[in-house]
From TrEMBL:
Protein's name in the database: ATPase
The ArsA/GET3 Anion-transporting ATPase-like domain, residue ranges: 16-293
Lineage of source species: Bacteria, Bacillati, Actinomycetota, Actinomycetes, Propionibacteriales
One Pfam family of this chain: ArsA_ATPase
UniProt-listed CDD domains: ArsA
PANTHER family the UniProt entry points to: ANION TRANSPORTER ATPASE-RELATED, ARSENICAL PUMP-DRIVING ATPASE ARSENITE-TRANSLOCATING ATPASE
Amino acid sequence: MPLLDIDALLDDHSTEIIVCCGSGGVGKTTTSAALALRAAERGRQVVVLTIDPARRLAQSMGIEQLDNTPRPVPSVDASAGGSLDAMMLDMKRTFDEVVEGQASPEKARLILENPFYVALSSSFAGTQEYMAMEKLGQLHRQALEDGSYDLIVVDTPPSRSALDFLDAPERLSSFLDGRLIRLLVAPARGPARLMTAGLSVVTSALGKILGGQMLRDVQTFVTALDTLFGSFRQRAEQTFALLQADATAFVVVASPEPDALREAAYFVDRLTDDHMPLAGLVINRVSPSARTELSAEEAITAAERLRAGDSSSLAAGLLQLHADRVRIIEREQHLRERFAASHPQVPTALMPAMPGDIHDLDGLRMIACRLADQG
């Protein structure tokens, strides 16, 4: 398989956005932070946006708390002229900013104080992914206006499926612009005489399902939101177009496990179908080579012979551990080869498994260095 040249990717100033994506638990946050740090220390003006509830990025970067505002990362080597800011997505605050930017102050107040909006902006399925794309769009517009950044690194939400990042914004915008919402807002548009009979049946049924108070909250919300209909879909489409632009590069992150590589394969295929620029694949937590000619079968045979003479043989136990490790390495190699066979053109970088968690900039530098050194 071709090798992913990390430094060439980071040094290419025509690349303005790097999106690290993949299923949950594969190391996207650490990969994003490591790439952002290396880019900054090679001279880029970088901001990294994380959507990680565990807040490991803040800890690794020596920042007490990340929030919706980019903050400088201390102790970054700026000798090459670069800089690094970091931020963590606050999806409700980002949603509030969209409302405040699109509606009049009075209408914005009605929306922001509505109980249905509070629930929608905090926990509705797809909101986090939608707001991640919204914040990306905001950062990109800011960078174009004031030149504050020349590279944005995005750590996508820790979704069960990697595809949620691309699919959820469409689902949310379709919901906000859908038939049911438009039906509920219709009484505010009139004419009432034409709408009353049909709506009375619908609202009566919805009232029984949702409860009267919740239905009133929904109706109040969508009435206040009437001026924003269409803007959610339009903004999602604009950011989707940004993700398709040549200035964007997707880095798919996976671990050497069947489910993670299967998700990575789905995502690579989806990026190809949607004409989005794929830079390559990072496979994290790869088991290091056993560096021995002793096969798993030979080790097991030797262990069984030793146990026949001494059931408590330490050497037999060590041989069994060696056999288990070799089998893990062989399984991972088989999985990587199978992915490469179905996606032979995808450049790949391997990141060996680390002995412990990464908790500082030195650890991130080491990861970035290993990813860059694939020779």
